[in-house]
Specification:
The protein is α+β, with helices and mostly antiparallel strands. The protein has one domain (9-130): 2-Layer Sandwich (Ribosomal Protein S5, domain 2). The chain contains 5 helices and 4 strands. A 4-stranded mixed beta sheet has the order 1-2-4-3, sandwiched between helices. Strand 1 (26-30) and strand 2 (33-40) form a beta hairpin.
């Protein structure tokens, strides 16, 4: 049986990693979500680490921000299986930041649909792009 649990090592917590993600990362967009992602060169294990941010400027109440963070986290937890096999196949690690862009609180079904769309796009990009260790051997 597949485990749907989110582990601590899947959360992106390092300030250095977050700064690198936002300075060097690429972006995908499916309204109301924007995903900034970065393929981690030299990673020892394949997999994905993520963070979720809901700007206070967009969603003013803390209750609303927590609600959207929970919806995004649940959608990712249930749909990360779209992305993880592609990462395991290439043997690479990925860091992602999910940014909520809308002022209104969207229902879970809409969030899940858009998150699945973005994860599918990232999975296709990862499978078509040469792995970082392959680039080093070609040069």
């Amino acid at each position: 049986m597949e485990s749907f649990r989110l582990y601590k090592h899947e959360k992106l917590c390092s300030r250095t990693a977050v700064n690198l993600l936002f300075s060097d990362g690429k972006s995908e967009f499916a309204y109301p979500l924007r995903v900034v992602y970065r393929i981690v060169p030299g990673a020892t294990a394949s997999g994905a680490r993520f963070l979720i941010t809901i700007p206070k400027k967009k969603v003013r109440t803390a209750v609303g921000r927590v609600l959207m963070r929970r919806r995004i986290r649940e959608a990712y937890r249930l749909n990360r299986s779209v992305l993880l096999p592609a990462l395991a196949e290439k043997g690479i690690a990925l860091e992602m930041a999910f940014i909520y862009l809308d002022r209104e609180l969207k229902p879970y079904a809409k969030i899940e649909d858009r998150l699945r769309t973005v994860l599918t796009r990232i999975a296709t990009i990862v499978t078509t792009e040469p792995a970082p260790h392959e680039e080093a051997t070609q040069q």
